[in-house]
């Protein structure tokens, strides 16, 4: 029995594939290569030391998806495939709703057709919206999201909840990620954004390697200790290990499960800059800029539910996240090879 990993060659998917195979879980990987390189497959293979099946396929391609289920013995799915750039989603809402929401509908329908009713879904802390106060807990009301990307996550959560209500033999796990950063210890896998990075850590590492002149710090007038935004950064390998536990959960039990995957600790933008400088020995020039539209001051998790029910908690601290991000960036200045 294999787990189908959609979007499995992307940043979080690739790290998750390594941890799944290292813990003895067989995987089948599917990706349309829209936001990753095929060489990510080779890097995963080199790390785990064994081959695995890869399908180049779009989740919206019903026929292609059916073939995967026809050919493979898939009992569960981890669903990473999606577009994730907040700013781009404002410019291209139809593309985001089509890819993320319509793609998920096709995936779920094909799963149902083949009697596969276990799914772990990549949701996001963004579903908590602007109004909940951190630490964010799974039973808080979700919604009130401010951009099309966030709305796709919220809508897919609603779809999965409605699906479970209609048929309790599904096993559905919604994982709400906080801010994944870091990279594999080997320095061979990491985050490889296209163009100008939207997120803080890849921007910092590109400044450190000399690709960008300075970091723009979006606002220093928030009600936080140093005025900059506070987030719950989580090492991507800890996040990957959370998926190993989530797959065990959906394979073992029917139900609808919702977990935050975060550390429960918030760091400011300037904390991250300082920690990165310490880990890398490189100074990061920065400039204080206006706030970025849609940002909130403080966002961090209450991670206790995942500890109690999945026996999972994040083990890696900010220093290690910075060291590993830097190792990846410095060893692969241009990311994955073409
Ligand atoms: P990523 O872009 O690196 O990985 C997503 C992968 O999905 C890519 O390899 C892409 O080519 C593939 N893909 C996209 N659309 C597809 C489609 N229609 N069919 C097949 N493959 C498709 O992103 P990531 O950071 O690894 O994120 C994985 C998931 O986690 C996404 O759903 C994202 O929204 C969610 N998430 C990410 C973050 C984050 O900060 N990285 C935070 C919260 C949630
Ligand atoms: N940020 C910043 N400069 C950047 C990118 C991000 O100051 O170039 C800040 C952003 O305002 C937020 C934090 O860093 O306070 C994390 O932003 P990111 O985009 O990485 O994640 P988000 O929490 O917005 O999903």
List keywords for this structure.
seven-stranded parallel β-sheet; alpha/beta; 338 residues; 14 strands; binds uridine-5'-diphosphate; binds nicotinamide-adenine-dinucleotide; three-stranded mixed β-sheet; 11 helices; single chain; 18% strand; 41% helix
| Cα-atom radius of gyration | 19 Å
The small molecules bound here are: nicotinamide-adenine-dinucleotide, uridine-5'-diphosphate
Taking the alpha carbons of the first and last residues, their distance comes to 32 Å
Strand arrangement in the largest pleated sheet: 3-2-1-4-5-6-11
Runs in which pLDDT lies below 50 for 5 or more consecutive residues are none
Mean pLDDT: 97
Task: Summarize the model shown.
The chain is an alpha/beta fold and 338 residues long.
Give a verbal description of the structure:
The protein is α/β, with parallel strands linked by helices. It has eleven helices and 14 strands. The strands form four sheets. It has a seven-stranded parallel sheet with strand order 3-2-1-4-5-6-11, with helices on both faces. It has a three-stranded mixed sheet with strand order 12-9-14. The protein has a two-stranded parallel ribbon with strand order 7-10. Strand 1, helix 1 (11-22) and strand 2 form a beta-alpha-beta unit. Helix 3 packs parallel to helix 5 and helix 7 (200-208) packs across helix 11 (318-331). The two termini are 32 Å apart. Bound molecules: nicotinamide-adenine-dinucleotide and uridine-5'-diphosphate. Residues 179, 198-200, 203, 215-218, 229, 231, 269, 292, 295 line the site of uridine-5'-diphosphate.
């Amino acid at each position: 029995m294999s787990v189908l990993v959609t979007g499995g060659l992307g940043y979080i998917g690739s790290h998750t594939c390594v941890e799944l195979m290292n813990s003895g879980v067989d995987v089948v990987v599917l990706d349309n290569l829209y936001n990753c390189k095929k060489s990510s497959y080779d890097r995963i293979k080199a790390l785990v030391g064994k081959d695995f099946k890869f399908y180049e396929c779009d989740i919206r391609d019903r026929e292609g998806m059916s073939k995967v289920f026809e050919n493979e013995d898939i009992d569960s799915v981890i669903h990473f495939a999606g577009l994730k750039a907040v700013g781009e989603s404002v410019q291209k809402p139809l593309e985001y709703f089509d890819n993320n929401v319509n793609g998920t509908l096709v995936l779920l329908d094909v799963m149902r057709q083949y009697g596969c009713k276990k799914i772990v879904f990549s949701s996001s802390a963004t579903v908590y919206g602007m109004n909940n106060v951190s630490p964010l807990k799974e039973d808080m009301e979700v919604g009130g999201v401010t951009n099309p990307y966030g709305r796709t996550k919220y809508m897919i959560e609603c779809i999965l909840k409605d699906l479970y209500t209609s048929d309790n033999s599904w096993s559905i796990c919604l994982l709400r990620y906080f801010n994944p950063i870091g990279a594999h210890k080997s320095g061979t896998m990491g985050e490889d954004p296209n163009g100008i990075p939207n997120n803080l850590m890849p921007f910092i590492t590109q400044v450190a390697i000399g690709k960008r002149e300075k970091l723009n710090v979006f606002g220093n007038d928030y009600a936080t200790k140093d005025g900059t935004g506070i987030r719950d950064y989580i090492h991507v390998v800890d996040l990957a290990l959370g998926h190993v536990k989530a797959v065990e959960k959906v394979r073992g039990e029917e139900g609808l499960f919702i977990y935050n995957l975060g550390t429960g600790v918030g760091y400011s933008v300037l904390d991250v800059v300082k920690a990165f400088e310490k880990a890398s020995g490189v100074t990061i020039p920065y400039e204080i800029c206006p706030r970025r539209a849609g940002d909130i001051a403080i966002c961090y998790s209450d991670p206790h539910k995942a500890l109690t029910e999945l026996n999972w908690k994040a083990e890696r601290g900010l220093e290690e996240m910075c060291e590993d991000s830097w190792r990846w960036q410095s060893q692969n200045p241009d990311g994955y090879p073409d």
